[in-house]
Design a protein that fits this description.
Helix content is about 10%, strand content about 35%. It is mostly beta strands. The two termini are about 25 Å apart. The mean pLDDT is about 90.
């Protein structure tokens, strides 16, 4: 069941709210972006996330075409503290537009809610997001 969560970057300059169903899982991916940042995400529909403050200060990072299809994912970050609270993307196999919310940026999620969420592994390194990599223990 979807629940309204509030989140922010580390310094609080960017704040958002998102309707998320943690029972759908927290995803851990081995792509270069997620791996280097320790990004653990939960997906939300495109209309399920709202930036409530700091939109004008957000920076948008798009991976180079050699590491990800150009223009498919916008990774937003706070230029002040460097936190990446969410990414916006469009992928056909995901049903079109979506948000990937960094669950570490959810301010009002409980430890129990995070612990109860199933972990889903993605082999983004090999562009197989719907499959787990052979080795997952480092994620």
């Amino acid at each position: 069941m979807k629940k309204l969560f509030h989140g922010s970057c580390h310094c609080g300059a960017i704040r958002f709210e998102a309707d998320i169903d943690l029972a759908e899982g927290i995803r851990k991916c081995n792509c270069s972006f997620c791996l280097k940042l320790g990004y653990k995400k939960s997906f939300a529909a495109h209309d399920a996330l709202r930036v409530t403050s700091g939109k004008q200060t957000m920076r948008d990072y798009q991976a180079k075409p050699s590491s990800w299809p150009a223009g498919d994912i916008n990774h937003y970050m706070c230029p002040e503290c460097g936190t990446h609270p969410f990414s916006r993307g469009h992928l056909d196999f995901m049903g079109g537009d979506f948000w990937a919310v960094n669950v570490a940026c959810l301010d009002d999620v409980s430890e129990e809610e995070l612990a109860a969420a199933p972990i889903i592994y993605e082999d983004g390194k090999r562009d197989r997001q719907l499959e787990a990599p052979v080795i997952t223990s480092y994620l």
